[in-house]
């Protein structure tokens, strides 16, 4: 019968047999899959593993610290962080089209990942033990889905860490290949990973870059990050995380509306709340959140986040609306 301890022991033995004394690299996204995959591999081969985390500046509040501090403290994984925030902002300057943003983010991500990878490869070669393996957090549903079918991947050009180009110089290590998401979470808990990472709801690879309708700028990212943090905090406080699949918070940067705050007229931007309930993200319904929770979120965002004078609720199911706005 299924138990997370057995699965870990089984995978550890399998990884040790596959990897031997070889060196291994793994990209961390801040999400649960790559975090659990890397933790199992670390348990199996220790410091033969090095993880790469690209901070593209499109992360949510505290996510980098959760990886750099909490995750590293709980696993002992060796981590290299690439600070690519400027690089991404420069590449995204002047771009509003969603597909173009996705392409640019995907391209820059690969660029910065490969630059970090190159340095590690050189270092490993100097040690006489080349890097031969790449960890991927592929889950069972990913395996099934890539065998055909019409996923959302056909509608939007998906980017995520697992979507790195198949680097032929590396052999893949995929310890989660037979598992479902809830099983991955159970294993993450068994391995003692931080709850913020283990319980994290889906978050797209292009991050906040596709939650700003309009051009992505440092200023807009800061506004959205603050609004998103408030929404997440209040949803968690109200005990609603279990009911919600995810709740994108979107900044309509190209839309302005008139408001009144204090005794002055404002001309600010709306924030959209997009809480959805879903089994697998292929279809979704908008979550009927309690009015008092919506009210709390709205009040806090308009009071605490500069340039926001309106909060609106997205009441569209999928289809016809996708979960993300871009
Ligand atoms: P949509 O917006 O297509 O999203 O209804 C379905 C699910 O996929 C997530 N999503 C992404 N995940 N890279 C990802 O890893 C992406 O480029 C991407 N785009 C959307 C979205 O958050 C939802 O869970």
Question: Short description, anyone?
Answer:
Helix content is 41%, strand content 17%. With 326 residues, it is α/β, with parallel strands linked by helices.
Describe this structure in words.
One of its GO terms (molecular function) is ATP binding. The chain has 326 residues and is an alpha/beta fold. The chain has two domains: 4-198, HUPs (Rossmann fold), CATH 3.40.50.620; 211-313, GMP Synthetase, Chain A, domain 3 (2-Layer Sandwich). It is built from ten helices and eleven strands. It has a five-stranded parallel beta sheet, with helices on both faces. α6 (140-145) links the parallel β4 and β5. α1 (4-19) crosses α2, α1 (4-19) packs across α7 (181-190) and α9 (218-237) packs antiparallel against α10. The radius of gyration is 21 Å and the shape is globular. The structure holds xanthosine-5'-monophosphate. The site of xanthosine-5'-monophosphate has 16 residues, from loops.
Q: Using DSSP, what is the number of strands?
A: 11
Overall morphology = globular
Discrete helix count: 10
Across the major sheet, the strand order is 3-2-1-4-5
Low-confidence stretches: 148-153
Strand content: 15-25%
Which structural class should the secondary elements be placed in?
alpha/beta
CATH architecture of the largest domain: 3-Layer(aba) Sandwich
Largest sheet: 5 strands, parallel
- How do the SSEs run, as a string of H and E? HEHEHEHHEHEHHHEEEEEHE
Quote the CATH topology of the largest domain: Rossmann fold
Report how far the terminal alpha carbons are from each other.
Answer: 42 Å
Ligand types:
xanthosine-5'-monophosphate
Q: Please state the CA-atom Rg, rounded to the nearest Å.
A: 21 Å
Share of helix among residues? 40-55%
